[in-house]
Fold this sequence. Notes:
The structure is a single chain. 45% of the residues lie in helices and 15% in strands. By secondary structure, it is of the alpha/beta class. It has two domains: 22-119 and 279-321, 3-Layer(aba) Sandwich (Rossmann fold), CATH 3.40.50; 127-277, Response regulator (Rossmann fold). Helix 5 runs parallel beside helix 6. It starts with a helix and ends in a 10-residue tail after the last helix. Bound molecules: beta-D-glucopyranose (BGC). Residues 34, 36, 110-111, 158, 162, 164, 202, 232, 234, 257-258, 278 line the site of beta-D-glucopyranose (BGC).
Amino acid sequence: MKKILAMLLVAMLALSCTAALAEKVGVSMPTKDLQRWNQDGANMEAQLKDAGYEVDLQFASNDVKTQLDQVENMIAEGADVLVIAAIEGSSLGEALAMAKDEGIPVIAYDRLLMDSDGVSYYATFDNYMVGTVQGTYVKDALDLDNAEGPFNLEITAGDPGDNNTRYFYQGAIDVLQEYIDAGKLIVVSGQTAFDDVATPLWATETAQSRAENILSSYYADGSNVDAWLCSNDSTAQGVVAALDANYNGEWPIVTGQDCDKVNVKYMIDGKQSMSVFKDTRTLAAQVVKMVGQIIASEDVDVNDTETYNNNVIVVPSFLCEPVFADVNNYEELLIESGYYTEDDLK
Ligand code: BGC
């Protein structure tokens, strides 16, 4: 009996030592309101746990102060590595300074952390390429090099506080600008400058009300808007809602990004023409790999050491490749790959 008790004690001690040894990774996500961040959070948590880490996953309700508190708590509670998708890129300076003081490496997840030297690595999808894919789609779908035109275009971009937003916008504009300059594409509202087309917090409602204003001010006479360049799916949802409610012309080309379920259904129904698939499993796997390399003091995988200057340092980055998605390839990309089930899209 004594022997069994002693063996039990040793086993329990061994277990508690293993638990104590597991490195702790704090994962801070912006919000649960958008499908993609729920998926990112879930994928990160599952893959980190599979790799043997303890995980502290928090969502910050798109509230900057909440995110700051959550990250500071993660530091106080002994996180060994932090993975942060910021609501507002430059709002976490205090927490990043704390992390740096404590020697805690920080990986910026999807969105760059700005104005701080407390960020060690950045993992994302190639943001400029996302914009290029969207712009090229509009160019090809309207056959801008051959068709006579002119065509009417409107633009809806994302949140100015998110460092990704300008890359998306610029990637698309760099493809379309020559056609705007040549008068083949006409932005009837005249709203092309980044500040005029941005959508704070990427909010669907804000994108919708701006699109409703544009439709009632410039398209009420029945003229067509031929393409609506939307930087992502949440803003495309707002634009589609406005078109549904306030528009009588021919349905335009509508772009997006993320392949959110609602938007894939729009693609199936012909309300959205394309999206950009950023497989959150790929990004999560890359970040888990980087966490492992950091913890093992190995070289960390990066493939871009020039692009992402956060105003203080150039952050070594790993850029995953975004993939074009439309009604013709969504089954292969999203269903056959196990990302969604058929039922998800009903
Ligand atoms: C992400 C996009 C997302 C947007 C809104 C961006 O930082 O890269 O995938 O659509 O935020 O959440």
